[in-house]
């Protein structure tokens, strides 16, 4: 299971869990068995979340939380599993969940630090940085990422260093520091390629495409998105396919290729799973395409869905963009 997690191979991870769970039930009918089962189910929830099945992941993590609560009252050795579960339940897409997510990542960090676990602490700090980033606290996020980088450097963890370098790039982009953002992304790309991490390479192709998109370099952005999409499809990463296809819709709108933009946006919306942010993004470009083609009622419908989606997600920058387009459509 750990092998597949490190390689971000989510479908194989789910199948590995299916083979491991019966073995856990057959061994050590005591606290060790409960701990093994909780740990495996937490891994399973992680793979489900990364595959876009958030509701199933939430249900599974809640069952793990209840089992661990009973176990921890009598057995201190369960703390590493609790740290892992806290880290996984820290995932917070909606604004209403972010305060709880910050508490869980903080609790996970404290447990990892008390155990001297540099790897776990580094990942918990990334989680805290992402929550700060979502809240627009970019300087705070930068501090978390720098602390995380120190932990991974102390451990000599090349993959961890590459991962946090990506987050430093995202943070720089939000601050409008495009040169710094591109420098971080290029550095992490080289690290992922050096260790043969294809998912990391695919993500960074997309990140570089995003930088070129924001700078209005449509041809380069399109080229990079067409490089990342087949990798995500081969890996079976549904959420990544969602943001890649919605990104292609945006680039095609920028190039004035509205029929292609509509096709890519609809591809994103028809994917299985719950990808609220990328659905909102796709509705933005469906609205922009309809606006350009003078289909104003349709443009207003799509853009209203985009505005509603971003408002629910608390994505202020994207919401402002969608509102601007909607305002233009309402004037027609």
Helix and strand layout, with pairings?
Layout lengths: L1 H5 L3 H17 L4 H20 L3 H19 L6 H11 L8 H17 L3 H17 L3 H18 L2 H17 L3 H17 L3 H17 L3 H18 L2 H17 L3 H12 L6 H17 L3 H18 L2 H15 L2
Helix pairs in contact: 2-3, 3-4, 3-5, 4-5, 5-6, 6-7, 7-8, 7-9, 8-9, 9-10, 9-11, 10-11, 11-12, 11-13, 12-13, 13-14, 13-15, 14-15, 15-16, 15-17, 16-17
Describe this structure in words.
The chain has 17 helices and no strands. The protein has 332 residues and is mainly α. It is globular, with a radius of gyration of 21 Å. The N and C termini lie far apart (55 Å). About 2% of the residues have low confidence.
Biggest sheet, open or closed, and with what strands and sense?
A: none
The percent range for strand residues is under 5%
Q: Tell me the Rg in angstroms.
A: 21 Å
Return the structural class. Answer: mainly alpha
Strand segment count: 0
Q: Can you tell me the overall shape?
A: globular
**First-to-last CA distance:** 55 Å
- How large is the count of helical segments? 17
User: pLDDT below 50 for ≥5 consecutive residues: which ranges?
Assistant: 73-80
> What is the string of helix and strand elements?
HHHHHHHHHHHHHHHHH
Mean pLDDT: 80
User: What is the share of helical residues?
Assistant: over 70%
């Amino acid at each position: 299971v750990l092998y597949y997690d490190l390689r971000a191979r989510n479908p194989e991870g789910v199948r590995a869990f299916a083979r491991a769970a019966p073995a856990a039930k057959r061994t050590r009918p005591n606290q060790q068995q409960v701990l093994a089962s909780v740990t495996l189910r937490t891994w399973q929830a992680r793979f489900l979340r990364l595959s876009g099945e958030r509701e199933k992941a939430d249900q599974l993590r809640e069952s793990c939380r209840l089992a661990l609560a009973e176990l921890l009252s009598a057995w201190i050795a369960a703390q590493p599993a609790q740290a892992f579960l806290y880290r996984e339940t820290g995932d917070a897409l909606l604004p209403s969940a972010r305060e709880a997510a910050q508490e869980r990542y903080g609790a996970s960090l404290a447990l990892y630090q008390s155990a001297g676990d540099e790897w776990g602490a580094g990942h918990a700090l990334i989680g805290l940085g992402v929550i700060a980033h979502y809240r627009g606290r970019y300087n705070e996020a930068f501090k978390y990422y720098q602390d995380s980088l120190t932990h991974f450097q102390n451990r000599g963890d090349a993959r961890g260093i590459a991962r946090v370098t990506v987050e430093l790039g995202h943070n720089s982009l939000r601050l409008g520091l495009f040169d710094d953002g591109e420098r971080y992304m290029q550095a992490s790309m080289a690290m992922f390629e050096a260790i043969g991490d294809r998912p990391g390479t695919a993500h960074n192709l997309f990140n570089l495409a995003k930088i070129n998109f924001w700078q209005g370099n449509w041809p380069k952005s399109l080229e990079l998105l067409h490089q990342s999409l087949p990798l995500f499809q081969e890996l079976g990463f549904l959420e990544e396919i969602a943001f890649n296809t919605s990104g292609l819709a945006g680039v095609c709108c920028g190039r004035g290729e509205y029929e292609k933009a509509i096709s890519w946006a609809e591809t994103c919306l028809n994917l299985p799973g719950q990808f609220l942010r990328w659905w909102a993004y796709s509705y933005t470009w469906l609205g922009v395409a309809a606006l350009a083609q003078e289909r104003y009622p349709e443009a207003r419908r799509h853009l209203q869905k985009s505005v509603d989606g971003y408002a629910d997600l608390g994505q202020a920058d994207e919401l402002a963009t969608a509102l601007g387009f909607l305002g233009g459509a309402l004037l027609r």
